[in-house]
Amino acid sequence: MYTNAYTAYQRTNINTATKGRLIVLLYEGAVKQLTQAVSLFEPDGKIQAKNIEQFGNCLQKAEKIISELEVSLDMEKGGEIAKNLMSLYLYFNEELVQANINKDKEKILAIMKMLKDLLDSWRQIVATTANAEPAQAGSRLSIQG
After folding, report:
1. pLDDT in tens, 82-91
2. Contact 81/143 with Cβ under 8 angstroms?
């Protein structure tokens, strides 16, 4: 019963979120998946055989989320910022593929740090636009990320 209520809450949260808030939710999801992947490393830097599948699934989910961020970019309105974000997203996914193949914790941590920095920036944008006039909010979010 609680699971159904929580799922309904999440669905409502997503369905009623602003575009900026959705971007924040995507970043949070990617960071969460990478955090879970990193948690599967043993102190010796290896991943137990029983956790390999979960590790790969976490990285694949993060890649899908980053791909969703890619398609959310408005390349016409976003200009140089959108181009730079697209390059970053492509880089993130390339690195995550390599991290998955090589079980490279450091690559994951580096991508996670960059995602967290972008997440913090988007949280600031969303907080600022939430208090702005409607016209301001629309123009500020036109950079899309």
Report:
1. 999 999 999 9
2. yes
